[in-house]
Amino acid sequence: MDVKTAFLNGDFEEEIYMDQPEGYVVQGQEKKVCRLVKSLYGLKQAPKQWHKKIDSTLLSKGFAINECDKCVYMKGNSDSFVMICLYVDDMLITGNSPRVILEIVEAMSTTFEMSMIGELTFFLGLQIKQNEDEIFVSQNKYAENLVRRFVLKNAKHMKTPMGSTQQVCKDDVGQDVDPPLYRSMIGSLLYLTASRPDIMFSVCVCARFQSSPKVSHLNVVKRIIRYVAGTSDLGIWYSKDTNSNLIGYSDSNCTGDVEDRKSTSGGCFYLGNNLVSWYNRKQNCISLLTAEYEYVAAGSCCAQLIWLRHMLDGYGISDNSMILYCDNLSAINIFKNPVQHSRTKHIDIRYHFLRDLVEKQLVQIKHVDTLFQLADIFTKPLDHERFSSLRKSLGLGFL
């Protein structure tokens, strides 16, 4: 659903004046101004006032807000519920009762002028296809437009976004490239990662050189786009699954940056069998041990895991099972053994966040063989066979 002229619905909490609009100036009162009684587009207060208006309207109709995401509202119970996801003036309405959904739509239409688009096929740049058992989410049209925009449609397609032995590092002697062009390519690819976790690592690595990009960096970005060109219709499959267990995979690459020797953390998170979140982040510390890199990465993963659990609690899903898989036994032993010793006493206190959760039995830490470490794809470039295997395990496929 789309709310027409949404920002005009906001109410003011302060007095705001504006010049008389051109063509509507009252003769003899040219020096007077107009006092606004409703919000207008272009005002800095307009977005906030609109959100306050829609928030109060939904709450007055019996919806409850999810405290972990102020733009998600729910009403009802397991027998009959409606959920509304709000993004500015676009609303996604879902539930298990078409009759209740229709009643909510009609009630909202009495307050706002709205247009009902129908069954969800497109939302915030995501293409969505549904059947009785599965949902397919992709950015096919966006990916094709991206390839055309950067004139690589006819270039040779690549099987992976980055070579398995390729290193991207600072280039002091390389030829400069146009920074706005490079940043535009990076920004476009980052938007694509909303449905393409397979390019997350390579794009984030290239994004580190936006201040002074060189031809060597541009060539890596072009390779990513050539990979996208050959896989533009790739997307994520979501299946019906009543399993509400939260499972995370955490990994890092030891001293992955050849310049400052800092590692890259990566993680992915599943609700049941479905991938719901993923991330890639360069660590801001230099560790002394391989286990320390993994320890820091797992702590970051656990923060996301806890947030996802709180989100589910807001939805009324109260399964407390949370498992984090790590492929480093030494790091796992640090989590499970709170005794401080000479090899770990230097670790910053904030990274002991996960140890506390393990002691309270809120999170289980389990070992996984490196071969089955799904977060591996977010921390390093891989060969085609390994890359394709992990891509499939993430739930990515073709329609």
UniProtKB/TrEMBL annotation:
<dbReference type="InterPro" id="IPR043502">
    <property type="entry name" value="DNA/RNA_pol_sf"/>
</dbReference>
<feature type="domain" description="Reverse transcriptase Ty1/copia-type">
    <location>
        <begin position="1"/>
        <end position="162"/>
    </location>
</feature>
<protein>
    <recommendedName>
        <fullName>Reverse transcriptase Ty1/copia-type domain-containing protein</fullName>
    </recommendedName>
</protein>
<dbReference type="Pfam" id="PF07727">
    <property type="entry name" value="RVT_2"/>
</dbReference>
<dbReference type="InterPro" id="IPR013103">
    <property type="entry name" value="RVT_2"/>
</dbReference>
